[in-house]
Design brief:
Elements (H helix, E strand, L loop, with lengths): L6 E4 L9 H16 L3 E4 L13 H12 L26 H9 L3 E4 L3 H13 L23 H9 L5 E4 L6 E6 L3 E6 L7 E3 L7 H11 L4 E5 L6 H11 L5 E5 L2 E2 L9 H7 L8 E2 L5 E2 L2 H4 L3 H9 L14 H7 L10 E2 L2 H14 L2 H11 L6 H11 L6 H7 L12 H7 L4 H14 L5 H15 L4 H12 L7 H8 L1 H21 L1
Parallel strand pairs: 1-2, 8-9, 10-13
Antiparallel strand pairs: 3-4, 4-7, 5-6, 11-12
Bound molecules: glutamic acid (GLU).
Glutamic acid binds next to helix 6.
């Protein structure tokens, strides 16, 4: 690594919400910057006005904030290299495009969209699928390389619309080094004369990206693999300007869990998991769900994302952001696409939920229940439910019986497991419960064991029917703990009601 100060940027285009792949790119940039005492910058690349989506920029910044990976320079944050939104730097790009023209690295092209479309159609009819504006075709098109200088000046003066294109040389090998992929060599015969400056007075992504990376002293470009094909052009632009090229690292694609395709925004809703960090509603009112609203903790989401393409080389999987910063290196990022695993994502969330203190979970429960439960109760609910839950809301939905009496009883289990003698056994057990003076989990357990012993029966004959009466469901945390939590009076009346309700179910069957 060079000893230039590390300055990296995440450069999203505000063309929609930030896909989780984008969050991973931001995360790796963040981790790399922190690890090397560098600076993490966000730059909004909005030069493509046609694809601009209102609200997307705020969405991106809000999502990064939720993830806890805020940049140190960026829009709304400041920094000495601003503005950090390309449309606000609009005036700065044209002189660079013109500089390329005077250096004969670029040229004016006056072909109209219709003319180019008709070229494409003709080529197609002749069996050439991908017609390109390149070092061969440009010789017969309308540009400053084919037209006489006087004609070019006339067209420019008359205000005829033009674009500025890169003059791609013939048959040159462009070599670039990528930290993740090693040396990449591309021959310029495979590259077209990309537009650098558009007729609407805006630069294209390529020109603006290079000009700004240089202006902002970017040391490393860490971005998705989909930008690798653009990298040779970028290297040529750095050379054309005589600027030092930053180091490159192109991150592996995120793949769908059910195949090898790229994880797209449609996959999430099709397969039942979010693809976006936070909810996003399109202007047509279509909702794409987000990790935040589904109840994921940002720490769990970030931990999961870090592992999509990187691993620490040890068996440790749970990492705080600080630990990730410590462990992260681009050298340990894989080349191959990373398959997204929704189950593993839940596993991370479960781990983070379990690691939270009951007191902290009680605060989250308090928010979900609008403070309707006493805090002490919420702490106990967290204690009882957290081992079996994935999300905070699971503790309330799966443990609804901790708050209100059951309305429904699990019919399927009752019909399978409830025997004719069970009614009498539960009535006898109820009588025992009534004798317990100090109604604690330990005392209930001691009494229960003595009851089984006296009756000479196994645990299964009573425990699940007891549970069904009290909770209505077949599984949950320990029944002695649940009983302790509910209190003696409540347990007694729930058994009494449960026996009546279950008898109805059995009789109706
Ligand atoms: N604006 C590009 C994007 O939307 C940035 C690519 C890059 O980082 O160079 O992803």
């Amino acid at each position: 690594m060079s000893n230039k100060p590390v300055r990296v940027r995440f450069a999203p285009s505000p063309t929609g919400p930030l896909h989780m792949g984008g969050v991973r790119t931001a995360l790796y940039n963040y981790l790399f910057a922190k690890k090397h005492n560098g600076t993490f910058i966000i730059r909004i690349e909005d030069t493509d006005q046609a694809r601009f989506v209102p609200g997307a920029q705020d969405y991106i910044l809000d999502a990064l904030k939720w993830c806890g990976i805020m940049p140190t320079e960026g829009p709304g944050i400041g920094g000495e290299f601003g503005p950090y939104v390309q449309s606000e730097r609009k005036e700065s790009y044209k002189p660079f495009a013109e500089q390329l023209i005077s250096n004969e690295k670029a040229y004016y092209a006056f072909d109209s969209a219709e003319e180019l479309d008709s070229m494409r159609d003709q080529a197609k009819q002749m069996g050439m699928a991908n017609w390109q504006y390149n070092s061969i075709t440009r010789t017969s098109l309308k540009n400053s390389l084919t037209l006489p200088q006087s004609e070019v000046s006339k067209l420019l003066e008359a205000g005829v619309p033009y674009v500025i294109r890169m003059k791609m040389p013939r048959n040159q090998d462009i070599r670039l080094h990528d930290i993740i992929r090693g040396w990449v060599v591309v021959n310029t015969n495979n590259l077209d004369d990309k537009v650098l400056f558009k007729s609407d007075g805006m630069p294209t992504y390529h020109l603006a990206n290079i000009v700004d990376d240089h202006a902002m002293n970017i040391s490393h470009v860490i971005r998705g693999e989909e930008w690798l094909p653009s990298a040779p052009l970028h290297v040529m632009l750095y050379e054309a300007f005589g600027w030092e090229c930053p180091e490159f690292a192109h991150l592996p694609l995120l793949l769908r869990p059910d195949g090898n395709g790229k994880l797209s925004k449609r996959d999430g809703d099709r397969l039942g998991f979010p693809v976006f960090p936070t909810d996003w509603t399109t202007s047509e009112g279509e909702l794409y769900s987000g990790y935040r609203e589904k109840g994921y903790f940002p720490e769990a989401f970030i931990n999961m994302l870090a592992f999509l393409g990187w691993n620490p080389g040890t068996t440790q999987e749970i990492f705080s952001l600080e630990e990730l910063t410590e462990a992260f290196s681009l050298e340990r990022v894989a080349k191959a696409g990373a398959k997204f695993d929704p189950d593993k994502t839940k596993w991370f969330q479960q781990n983070y939920l379990r690691a939270q203190s009951n007191e902290d979970l009680a605060i989250a429960i308090g928010k979900l229940t609008n403070g309707s439960l006493p805090n002490e109760k919420s702490i106990q609910i967290a204690n009882l439910m957290k081992e079996r839950a994935t999300f905070v809301q699971d503790m309330l939905s799966d443990g609804a019986y901790l708050i209100t009496r059951p309305i429904n009883y699990d019919k399927e289990t009752i019909l399978k497991k409830w025997k004719s003698e069970t009614f009498e056994l539960i009535s006898d057990w109820l009588a025992e419960i009534k004798t317990i003076t100090e109604f604690t989990a330990e005392n209930i357990e001691v009494t229960f064991k003595a009851f089984l012993e006296a009756k000479q029966i196994g645990i299964g004959a009573v425990l699940q029917p007891f549970r069904l009466c009290v909770t209505g469901v077949a599984a949950g945390p320990g029944m002695f703990d649940i009983s302790d939590f509910l209190g003696k009076e409540e347990v007694i009346s729930r058994i009494e009601i449960g026996l009546i309700e279950i008898r109805k179910i059995v009789n109706e069957a």
